[in-house]
């Protein structure tokens, strides 16, 4: 009967623990995702801020997978460089160890108090979706998690006297390789090295897990965490793949850096890491919790020592996707805003990148690439607006610079509209069933493609001849378009024919506007 | 993409193209065509055996025409298929790349 109650307590404890940790992550991602994005976007270039944001995010969100997802979206959007995302993820790993430390402390009274407050609050406050309710849901999830640990402790204690469990724990605890494999396999199952470590902490506190095996189990759990992320991200590409590989690589790095110290200490008896831990904390369970913290610190230290080779390796193995590269400005940067002459030149070069993508967008209208180009255009506009804002105060613009600034902003707007028309035309073409209308779509695509390539030539080298050619081949197309519509008046898919020809006419008109703006800028120079 | 160059007269080169003037075709034809455009006063491009012309192919022809025009010459297109002609007319480059139906018309246009 005692054995049955023990098993039921362990199962119930595990259920509460896993439900608690999952609900906590989900609620905290909802609550903290947006503030984390904002904080990182604003302060992401300061090393101290990166360390603080990462640690706090890891401690609160308790999900490195969730944080990886946020970072990937920010890197893809060009809001965060990969060199910042990498250390931030490692600091978040360190932050997750807060839960492991808390689990090593007996929090029975606090747990029941939290459970009572949050449960009663959620019963009374029935308004869903409010921040206050979400906070209480997070508190309830945390309380469930700790209650699960208490049940786990109680159940393991009841079974601990049993010969079978004691024998299993003794085998795991006294055989280093078995303990390592158990830690790795358990983490692959739970997908959380902190969860595996917490269970090992409890088993150690109850005296069920011998010290040597417990240490290697935690090392195995850390490696299992890296392997788990890499398995989950096996199909990832670009930045996402880079971050997934990075997570796996740094977990391995932490284990590789600490393992020699542990194995050497076990083999020779020299006072190294484990002796140090024993000197700081008496209880074996807490020593494991601190070992978990040291693993994260070792990974951080390894990264800061090898940041450049790691960055180069990952960029070679998982290069950023075209859409990700396009969204990141290559020329403009905030510090250049104050120097009007340089700022305008840089903005013009950045705009040329947008023009250079138009023909490719028409041929292959990829929504991810289109979104990246849209973001780049917004970034150019933001940059030019900042230059305009400073121009009045500091007179930083060169003679004629104000006209050039106005011209560049007008060009930017024309390019945004042109890109949208080109993207829509490309989409309409690829969705067109075979037939007369599809032939028309092909002809329009090849024709407009040539016009866009000439726009690219003019954007990169605004010689009078290039601009003249662009003006010539983007002249009024209304007569040609009307003739096409008349010719295809009986064709199937009339709506698509009208849409295609309208988009074509609009795109050519916008190219003409762009050519005139280029000419006006060239004349002013 | 096949390309053959013959001399129609002392001042006129005739470039015969065959196949698809797509991205791969244009890449193969770009350099030799630029050499012809740079070294002859007039050029007649026979497109009768070209069944497809892509945007990059049009751009190569347009740039060749501009090179020739700079030296006071002309580039004419001979007998393009109706599909190719439709593409050229759609983007309105027939002023820059006039179309002729036979050699006699071409020679008359070059002399005029």
In brief:
Chain A is mainly α. Chain A has 21 helices and no strands.
List keywords for this structure.
heterodimer, A: 525 residues, Methane Monooxygenase Hydroxylase, Chain G, domain 1, 2 domains, 0% strand, elongated, B: alpha/beta, 4 helices, 5 strands
CATH class placement of chain B: Alpha Beta
* Helix-strand category of chain B: alpha/beta
- Could you tell me the mean pLDDT of chain B? 88
Q: Please, how many domains of chain A?
A: 2
Strand order in space, largest sheet of chain B: 1-2-3-4-5
Q: Helix amount of chain A, in percent?
A: over 70%
- Biggest beta-sheet profile of chain B: 5 strands, mixed
Please provide the ordered H/E string of secondary-structure elements of chain B.
EEHEHEHEH
Radius of gyration of chain B: 12 Å
Shape of chain A: elongated
Give the helix/strand layout.
The complex is a heterodimer of chains A (525) and B (112).
Chain A: H1 2-43, H2 47-61, H3 64-76, H4 82-103, H5 108-124, H6 131-160, H7 163-174, H8 176-190, H9 193-205, H10 211-232, H11 238-268, H12 273-280, H13 284-317, H14 322-327, H15 340-363, H16 367-394, H17 401-430, H18 436-460, H19 464-473, H20 478-487, H21 494-524
Chain B: E1 2-7, E2 12-21, H1 23-39, E3 42-53, H2 55-70, E4 75-78, H3 82-90, E5 99-100, H4 103-111
Parallel strand pairs in B: 2-3, 3-4, 4-5
Antiparallel strand pairs in B: 1-2
Helix pairs in contact in B: 1-2
Overview of the structural elements:
The complex is a heterodimer of chains A (525) and B (112). Chain A has 525 residues and is mainly α. The mean pLDDT of chain A is 85. The longest helix of chain A has 42 residues. Chain A folds into two domains: 316 residues, no CATH class; 199 residues, Methane Monooxygenase Hydroxylase, Chain G, domain 1, CATH 1.20.58. Chain B is an alpha/beta fold and 112 residues long. A five-stranded mixed beta sheet of chain B has the order 1-2-3-4-5. In chain B, β3, α2 and β4 form a beta-alpha-beta unit. The longest helix of chain B is centred in the N-terminal third of the chain and has 17 residues.
